[in-house]
């Protein structure tokens, strides 16, 4: 019988997305050895190598890239057929607001996969600062909002926690002091801080933390968005406080940075549903929570 095994195709997609067999294992609820066996069988079926392996992880070969494109379409169609036969098809327009700190290097790919899996959902996506996102969501400008909450800030105060009691956390990350690859801080010199505008909650948190710990700093550069901030860090203009998924080419975590205080973790949360929202919005939020992890 010709054709490919669905679960092997699903494993291939998970491995490519995760970057390694080990990281893919929990995504497909298998052990690392089982993932390796699935890929071996798939390569045997394909008759050629699908992945290249190195210390940095795995990457698809030319054949792997071609098969992956088919795999995503096949898996999306399979999932759509299952939802349709179980009365779970989603159809409608959804206004989604996402904080600009959420997986900046992966968000476009994740949204593309959503479009493949849910072709009858039309997404209108806005990328906003978390505080602006919360305000706009409170005014009804968006159906679903994914914001960032920083432990120990006003966003985590008792009143805010009560406000967001039903917020669903979909991802947690550590904050880190980031600099250009090879960068070293100079003792007794003010930290050259790079940040987004002061309307950004992470900017406010970082400045307040440095002041509270009496760490001298100068605001060396203000970027309009995370991509600009990443570029400024990579160019060696200074130091930024960012979440882990913002680490990119040319940017690295500063190891034991001299004089800089420890940083908390952040949580990315879907803001709680409004009273009286439609069933479509509720189900769409659950769908997003499953896919944007």
Give a topology summary.
Elements: H1 6-18, H2 21-24, H3 32-46, E1 51-54, E2 57-60, H4 62-85, E3 92-99, H5 107-117, E4 121-128, H6 130-138, E5 144-150, H7 158-163, E6 168-180, E7 191-195, H8 201-212, E8 217-222, H9 226-234, E9 239-243, E10 251-253, E11 265-270, H10 279-291
Parallel strand pairs: 3-4, 3-5, 7-8, 7-9
Antiparallel strand pairs: 1-2, 5-11, 6-9, 6-10, 6-11
Helix pairs in contact: 1-3, 1-4
Structure description:
The protein is flat, with a radius of gyration of 22 Å. Helix 5 links the parallel strand 3 (92-99) and strand 4 (121-128). It has ten helices and eleven strands. Strands 3, 4, 5, 6, 7, 8, 9, 10 and 11 form a nine-stranded mixed beta sheet that branches. A two-stranded antiparallel sheet has the order 1-2. Residues 154-165 have low confidence and may be disordered. It starts with 5 loop residues before the first helix and ends with a helix. The protein has helices at 6-18, 21-24, 32-46, 62-85, 107-117, 130-138, 158-163, 201-212, 226-234, 279-291; strands spanning 51-54, 57-60, 92-99, 121-128, 144-150, 168-180, 191-195, 217-222, 239-243, 251-253, 265-270. By secondary structure, it is of the alpha/beta class. Helix 1 (6-18) packs across helix 3 (32-46) and helix 1 packs across helix 4 (62-85). It folds into three domains: 6-85, Arc Repressor Mutant, subunit A (Orthogonal Bundle), CATH 1.10.10; 92-172 and 268-291, D-Maltodextrin-Binding Protein, domain 2 (3-Layer(aba) Sandwich), CATH 3.40.190; 175-261, 3-Layer(aba) Sandwich (D-Maltodextrin-Binding Protein, domain 2), CATH 3.40.190.10.
